[in-house]
Amino acid sequence: MIVSSDWRTWIRPELLAIPRHGGINIHDALLPKYGGFAPINWAIINGERETGVTVHQMNEDLDLGDIILQRRVVIGEHETATDIFKKTLPLFPEMILEALDLIASGQARYTPQDPRQATFFHKRSERDSLIDWNCTNEEVYNLIRAQADPYPNAYTCFQGRKLKIKRAMLPDKHYGGTPGRVFCRLPEGVVVLCGRVVDGRGQGLVVVEVQEEGRDPVAATRYFQRMGSYLGTPRSNSVLERGG
How many CB atoms lie within 10 A of CB 55? Predict the structure, then answer.
């Protein structure tokens, strides 16, 4: 049997036909949802409250073979991709061994996947981690959680320099104004505005820790010396700063 984990290329059916029992793959998602790449990161970005691990048969369709085993894993409201990775990783060896025992004993039950329910996600690139401050504060917060160390961090641009957002938290108050503005200082961090005002209620995100490229991480309260500046994309940042 071929046993695959984190395999990143398609395997030809003629190769899968060589071993008597074919091939099985272990995937860190609840298939048929989140097939493809970076499933934990995408699940957190999309605000999912659970993910899991699936052992499935390998066939000519990527991540669509019959399911042999599945385990669910809760995603806590403030957990990062690293936290969830540490939850799922211990399941890999025990689930693979269990699946092999079931197959060897002839007791394995194969559950076909419904391709109409399947979703596939691409590999994440640097561009995917660029923060759009026009998104809601929850969307920005989820992106930051999904890209926690050691993953490439979510980032923005400040005064022409790339700025990683290492840690953030949702505030307990409403803050309104232009998305991307560094608004006010709190004991735990600095409020950056995002989203849009709805029913008179604005949105803000408390940025706790940041890191300029080539420098050590630092508390946001130390990094931002004055309020009223703007964060943005590399192309628009110089214009935003002149307007701040």
Answer: 27
Omega before 150 within 30 of 0, i.e. cis: yes
Q: Which residues pair with 194 in a beta bridge?
A: 203
Print the SS3 string covering the chain.
CEEEECCCCCCCHHHHCCCCCCEEEEECCCCCCCEECCHHHHHHHCCCCEEEEEEEECCCCCCCCCEEEEEEEECCCCCCHHHHHHHHCCHHHHHHHHHHHHHHHCCCCCECCCHHHCCEECCCCHHHHECCCCCCHHHHHHHHHHCCCCCCCCEEEECCEEEEEEEEECCCCCCCCCCCEEEEEECCEEEEEEEEEECCEEEEEEEEEEEECCCCCEEHHHHCCCCCCECECCCCHHHHHHHC
Residue 51 near residue 75 (C-beta atoms within 8 A): yes
Return the CATH fold of 2-121: Rossmann fold (3.40.50)
Of the CA atoms within 13 Å of residue 175, those in its CB half-sphere come to 22
CATH superfamily of 126-243: Formyl transferase, C-terminal domain (3.10.25.10)
φ, ψ (nearest 5 deg) of residue 117: -95, -5
- Which tens digits make up the pLDDT trace of 39-64? 999 999 999 999 999 999 999 898 99
Q: Where are the domains of the chain?
A: 2-121, 126-243
pTM for the complete prediction? 0.90
Asked if 202 and 142 touch (Cβ cutoff 8 Å), the reply is no
Q: What is the pLDDT of residues 202-230, one digit of tens each?
A: 899 999 999 998 999 999 999 999 999 99
Report the distance separating Cα 70 and Cα 49, nearest Å: 16
